[in-house]
């Protein structure tokens, strides 16, 4: 049975995006953080994105190896681009130009159960606040990983809003001193 990891970046005050959906606060140059992300990407069998996040990231990552925003992105780009992408969308027959990619949507709970029942490496939800919440609502998350950025954003889109009570067990807390980011890993 396949595990599902939710890996999200949040601020100290719990925001995963600015009020306009902006993520400009995420760009940091931290080789240790890049090592962590490369290790995670190398250990999973696929990435799961919400449709909005997929569309946004598809504008950046295919060319990031040659035009990276940070030095680490050049290293991460082949990993991000090479992994299968599963896009959560309600669009019928969506166009998915950033390949390899497939979509799930209308019978979401059933498709998530099927994904988890399959053999293979874990899957990781990397982007999409709504998508991460949907997996949490289904109680389908085996591991929650939060990269907590040293910033009080003050307003924006919170990762956790009205949802189920889910007890978690801390399995790792690791600081990345260069950027001040702290990894918090929890098992459900």
UniProtKB/TrEMBL annotation:
Gene Ontology molecular function: any one: 5-amino-6-(5-phosphoribosylamino)uracil reductase activity
SUPFAM superfamilies: Dihydrofolate reductase-like
InterPro entries in the record: DHFR-like_dom_sf, RibDG_C, Riboflavin_Biosynth_HTPR
GO BP term, example: riboflavin biosynthetic process
Residues of the Bacterial bifunctional deaminase-reductase C-terminal domain: 4-165
Gene3D superfamilies xrefs: Dihydrofolate Reductase, subunit A (3.40.430.10)
A Pfam family it matches: RibD_C
Name of the protein in question: Bacterial bifunctional deaminase-reductase C-terminal domain-containing protein
Organism: Nocardia donostiensis
